[in-house]
Amino acid sequence: MSTIKIWCLERGSSCSSAFYFTVKSNNNIFDLKKAIFNEISASCNIKPKDLNLWKVNFNQNISDNVPFDSILRDEMRIRNPSSLIRDIFRGAEGSNIRIIFETPATSDFTCLSIHSIETTETYSGIVNEYTRRFLNDESDGFGWYSYSGSFDCFH
């Protein structure tokens, strides 16, 4: 079974941050998305299926001043996750960048309870105190509500 080396670059990144995967030619695009996802630091509410991929063929020595947004066209976008690698990257060799990927814009706020808070008890105390002050209109006169407790649950 043959393999293909695919160099990837995140949209908006410099070419020096390109990385590659060696994938089996009978894998599909979703397998490639999972491999890219495992390599990058994506927001916790992003899934591999959410990654946007464009098929490109750029030399890695290309200037970082090249505006990729003006080069990427809709017809270059890889939309079908079941497409086989061998069909999309037929004859791809060398170290040229073959994939530009992008993670969709999201809010990281939904990740707060997963990544930042270790003790729900402390967090619940903060929320309860804030809610009590808000409901009793104990603001400082400027609409600000303060919490005087400790934030020991954060590292």
UniProtKB/TrEMBL annotation:
This is Crinkler effector protein N-terminal domain-containing protein. InterPro entries: Crinkler_N. Residues 4-100 form the Crinkler effector protein N-terminal domain. Keywords: Secreted. One of its GO terms (cellular component) is extracellular region. Coiled coil: none annotated. The keyword Oxidoreductase does not apply. It is found in: Host cell; Secreted. It comes from the Eukaryota. Its main location: host cell.
